[in-house]
């Protein structure tokens, strides 16, 4: 790992902390320096450890995914509100979705994205299957369309190849 990267990250974190804090007493500045140093230390541990994929992520794809997920959350909110006003739309059920070739991190992002979407919750992640619970039939259909999984796969295309030899 390049020491310059750590210094740049520390400087950026420090500037962001100062801009967001707006208070410059000795105590608060020391807390800011401490938190920035700990953050850079944690970053170093992650990058030097197993999770080296973090340096390969595509920031533009992440921004696109976040905007898309926010829109999906809004759509799901509307679906839940409709179900509240028209209880005949409520059809709670468990179902499974396939994770495809997502690596471990992709599976976790996918499962968490399902849970973030109103009306659905991930109940189990085992192997290449995610068990979810949906409040309405529409929530099940949206997830089984695999658009969310495909978008998660685009977040880090280099690490979406799973070694199936040790998989259950």
How would you describe the overall organization of this protein?
The radius of gyration is 20 Å and the shape is elongated. The protein contains 6 helices and 3 strands, in the order αααβαββαα. Helices cover 59% and strands 14% of the residues. The chain has 2 domains: 3-49; 58-166, no CATH class. Strands 1-3-2 form a 3-stranded antiparallel β-sheet, covered by helices on one side. The model is unreliable at 160-168 (pLDDT under 50). With 168 residues, the chain is α+β, with helices and mostly antiparallel strands.
Summarize the structure.
The protein has 168 residues and is an alpha+beta fold. The protein has helices spanning 3-21, 26-48, 59-85, 104-116, 137-144, 147-155, and strands at residues 90-98, 120-126, 129-136. The chain folds into two domains: 3-49; 58-166, no CATH class.
Residue windows where pLDDT falls under 50 for at least 5 positions: 160-168
Instruction: Estimate percent helicity.
Output: 55-70%
The pLDDT mean sits at: 83
Number of helices: 6
Structural class: alpha+beta
* Count of folded domains: 2
Strand order of the largest sheet: 1-3-2
Q: In angstroms, what separates the terminal alpha carbons?
A: 34 Å
- The rough form would be described as elongated
Oligomer: single chain
Count of DSSP strands: 3
Strand content: 5-15%
**Rounded radius of gyration (Å):** 20 Å
């Amino acid at each position: 790992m390049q020491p310059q990267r750590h210094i740049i990250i520390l400087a950026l974190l420090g500037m962001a902390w100062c801009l967001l804090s707006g208070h410059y007493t000795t105590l608060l500045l020391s807390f800011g320096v401490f938190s920035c140093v700990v953050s850079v230390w944690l970053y170093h541990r992650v990058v030097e450890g197993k999770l080296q994929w973090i340096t390969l992520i595509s920031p533009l794809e992440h921004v696109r995914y976040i905007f898309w997920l926010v829109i999906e959350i809004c759509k799901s909110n509307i679906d839940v509100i409709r179900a509240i006003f028209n209880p005949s739309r409520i059809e709670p059920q468990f179902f499974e979705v396939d994770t495809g070739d997502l690596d471990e991190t992709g599976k976790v992002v996918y499962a968490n994205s399902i849970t973030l979407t109103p009306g659905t919750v991930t109940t189990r992640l085992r192997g290449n299957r995610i068990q979810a619970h949906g409040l309405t039939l529409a929530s099940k259909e949206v997830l089984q369309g695999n658009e969310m999984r495909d978008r998660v796969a685009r977040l880090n295309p280099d690490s979406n190849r799973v070694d199936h030899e040790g998989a259950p």
